[in-house]
Amino acid sequence: MVSVIRYLLYALLVIACICAALYSSRSRRSKDARERGLYGAVTNIFMGIMLIMLALIFMFIFQGSTVAIIIEAIFLVLGAFNIFAGIRNRGYYSRMKSNNM
């Protein structure tokens, strides 16, 4: 059962990495600042998911070490902050885009 969870976490990590790279490239190539902000916000959300998945994978691999627990906690906090900031920025840029069009 633990190996199934590990493979699922690895798959979600790979999907989050691919989506973050895709939206990051879209953000950099966009001419409109509002679209760039929207794509950047979605990139933040996927980066947060990626960090949380990485922390969960580390929880299954390294068990009991104090340093590992501190690093996992840092990854979890950074991931949660990225998701929060991405959702907040996505709402801001989507309202900005809908008001100006």
Automatic annotation (TrEMBL):
It comes from Paenibacillus dokdonensis. The chain crosses the membrane at residues 6-25, 37-61, 67-87. Keywords: Membrane, Transmembrane, Transmembrane helix. This is YtpI family protein. The keyword Lipoprotein does not apply. InterPro entries: YtpI (IPR025618). Pfam families: YtpI.
